[in-house]
Amino acid sequence: MSISIGIHDLSIATAEFVLPHTALAAYNGTDIGKYHVGIGQESMSVPAADEDIVTMGAAAAAPIIARHGKDRIRTVVFATESSIDQAKAAGVYVHSLLGLQSATRVVELKQACYGATAALQFAIGLVQRDPAQQVLVIASDVSKYELDSPGEATQGAAAVAMLVSVDPALVRIEDPSGLFTADVMDFWRPNYRDAALVDGQESIGAYLQAAEGTWKDYTEQGGRSLEEFAAFCYHQPFTKMAYKAHRHLLNYCGYDTDKDVIARDLGQTTAYNTVIGNSYTASVYLGLAALLDQADDLSGRPVAFLSYGSGSVAEFFAGTVVAGYREHLRTEENQEAISRRTPVDYAGYRALHEFKFPADGGDHATPEQTTGPFRLAGISGHKRLYQRR
Ligand code: CAA
Fold first, then answer.
1. CB of 198 closer than 6 angstroms to any ligand 1 atom
2. Which residues cross the membrane (predicted)?
């Protein structure tokens, strides 16, 4: 008999600042309906100068360590597509900030927004092999596009940390998975750029093609039927994309695309992404956090996941919500991570967007802006210096 493995704990973190879309619309003259209704976004998280994927990832993971201790964690997998170094894994900084044991393997994974799902699946494999160990999966990203580009309205920043173990308290991850890979250039970020490049309409088409492909493989592998799922957690580059993808999948499977049915299937997965913006690898698991935090009791109900990463790789899989999960949620802390953000005006956001360390190898301190538990104090000799506040 196969053992039960999945998400034992889940915690989220986001950035210090928030830019409401009303401020962006007022600046660029866009009708606010395009943002609020057309793409389904209300505001975006904006990192302080002394925040990045490491500080957010550590902030998301710290409460998990506080609750479960460190002794069983032998692997940390850090998924990101806004990497801060070409060699050293961001998770190594987190390992240090959290004081994890030296007998740990730490690695960074990349495949656009899909990376965290690869991390989760690899974690399950490791736990299967050694059921005594727990794996800390961290998904952390800063979504950054060019100023004044169509992508700008879909920026955001957040991290999700998940503890993967046997007998999970939240969600048991099931086999099979539906898989899909296609070589497309819908979204990418060459090494010499810090803002991503994207072909917006191509990316939407590539996502829908991947949704279809993963579903086809999922059914061929003997997966559940669509109507069994209580809810669907999609990757949400902007929340309306989840609606587009679900409508596409229902159509593909020959179902009516009734608005109420789509809202019922997705409605409770979008609350965090709507106000945080795109958090790339973290986005699909922010969808799960919002669902678990808000939905009526889901005990024993299967939930679908569609994880999409441009380029492109996608996976469709299912998880069953574990009875009693509500006692283990972090609803208040999750909502506090969002509500504690400080609104920034358009000029302040623009200055943060343009903030960059000189690449001269000198000593550069960052302004003290974050009120979160960890900060990037600066760089010295090309080395990033982190500290606990
Ligand atoms: N009131 C209501 N709705 C309005 C409106 C108004 N006043 N004005 C426009 N709209 C609607 C449009 O009709 C459109 O809706 P539909 O898509 O349902 O037709 C929607 O608002 C957006 O309008 P446009 O298509 O004209 O917007 P745009 O060209 O400025 O860009 C975008 C939209 C392509 C998503 C752009 O924001 C972008 O490039 N984003 C980054 C790429 C991205 O997120 N791609 C998603 C798939 S790739 C992926 O998932 C990986 C990832 O994380 C990047």
1. yes
2. none
Please enumerate in sequence order all residues whose Cβ is within 8 A of that of 336, keeping only pairs 6 or more positions apart, or say none.
Answer: none
pLDDT, tens digit, for every residue of 219-260?
A: 999 999 999 999 999 999 999 999 999 999 999 999 988 888
* Candidate list 235, 246, 248, 353, residue with the active-site label: 235
CA 281-286-291 angle, to 5 degrees, is 145
233 an active-site residue?
no
Beta carbons of 342 and 19 less than 8 angstroms apart: no
- Asked whether the ipTM of the predicted complex exceeds the cut of 0.90, the reply is yes
DSSP string, 100-144: --SS-EEEEE-BTBTHHHHHHHHHHHHHHH-TT-EEEEEEEEEE-
- Report the DSSP pairing between strands 364-365 and 383-388: unpaired
Query: Phi and psi for 12 in degrees, rounded to 5?
Result: -120, 155
Domains of the chain, by residue range, sit at 5-388
> What is the per-residue pLDDT across 110-168, written as a single tens digit (0 to 9) for each?
999 999 999 999 999 999 999 999 999 999 999 999 999 999 999 999 999 999 999 99
Fold of the domain built from segment(s) 5-388: Peroxisomal Thiolase; Chain A, domain 1 (3.40.47)
Atom 30 (ligand 1) nearest CA:
150
User: Is 327 assigned a catalytic role?
Assistant: no
Q: What is the pTM of this model?
A: 0.98
36 CA to middle of ligand 1, Å? 11
Cα–Cα distance for residue pair 279/19, rounded to 1 Å: 15
